[in-house]
Design goal:
Blueprint lengths: L1 E5 L3 H13 L3 E5 L2 H10 L4 E5 L7 H10 L6 E5 L4 H10 L3 E4 L4 H15 L6 E4 L2 E4 L4 E4 L2 E2 L4 H12 L7 H8 L10 H13 L8 E4 L3 E4 L4
Parallel strand pairs: 1-2, 1-3, 3-4, 4-5
Antiparallel strand pairs: 6-7, 7-8, 8-9, 10-11
Length: 224
């Protein structure tokens, strides 16, 4: 999953970058409002974490202008302001949730996961398709109740596909949402991960959990 962090406190920006990368997210950074707005318009983020007090363009205006430009990425506001009026203003500008500084890392991670689920139409932290069950909290995949041993990137691929069951997801899109920007987008590593997932989930070749649409990408089999 790809996340934008817009925060002008360099120490907090670094801390959040490290925290989210440690939990498997691909992270882009902005330390001012203009950069944040540019990145929001250029990329499709799974979540944007935006501080209200950004220089050049404050967080409220970043969100308003992004929404006017039809940016649909879920937005989590970070604010040091504990007044309810600022929280209301942020939500009215188009934010989806807010978190007041200082905060616990566990709460931020939980809110990020909840926003990703909700934006995909999934209120339940466990996503099921036939015998497949993805626990987005424990980050585990089970088939008929038996947990599979997946690598971190295999899990990321499966999570993204199951959170976007209506979409045909291209290799480029998958790469952008599970790797940092400098990854080689022409690599065949996504094909390798999908092949491994198919063997682990469906060794007998009966379920066919991941469909390949030639020249377009992959889609979770909704008829499992």
């Amino acid at each position: 999953m790809r996340i934008l962090i817009a925060e002008d406190d360099s120490r907090l920006l670094t801390q959040l970058d490290v925290l989210l990368q440690q939990h498997g997210y691909s992270v882009d950074l902005a330390d001012n409002g203009n950069s944040a707005l540019y990145l929001l318009k250029e990329h499709n983020y799974d979540v944007a974490i935006i501080d209200i007090g950004l220089p050049h363009l404050d967080g409220f205006d970043v969100i308003r202008q992004a929404r006017r430009a039809d940016v649909t990425s879920p937005v989590l506001i970070l604010t040091a302001r504990d007044r309810w009026q600022e929280k209301v203003e942020g939500l009215d500008a188009g934010a989806d949730d807010y978190l007041t500084k200082p905060f616990h890392n566990e709460e931020l991670l939980a809110r990020v996961k909840a926003l990703i689920r909700r934006s995909s139409g999934q209120a339940n932290p466990t996503i099921s398709f036939g015998p497949l069950e993805l626990d987005t909290v424990a980050e585990e995949l089970a088939v008929d109740g038996s947990r599979l041993e997946l690598t971190a990137y295999e899990y990321k691929v499966m999570e993204y596909l199951m959170l976007n069951p209506q979409k045909v997801v291209s290799k480029t899109e998958l790469t952008e949402h599970i790797y940092d920007q400098d990854f080689d987008l022409d690599s065949n590593v996504i094909e390798v991960f999908v092949g491994r997932l198919r063997k682990k989930i469906d060794p007998a070749g009966v379920l066919k959990p991941i469909e390949t649409l030639r020249g377009r990408g992959y889609r979770i089999n909704r008829d499992l």
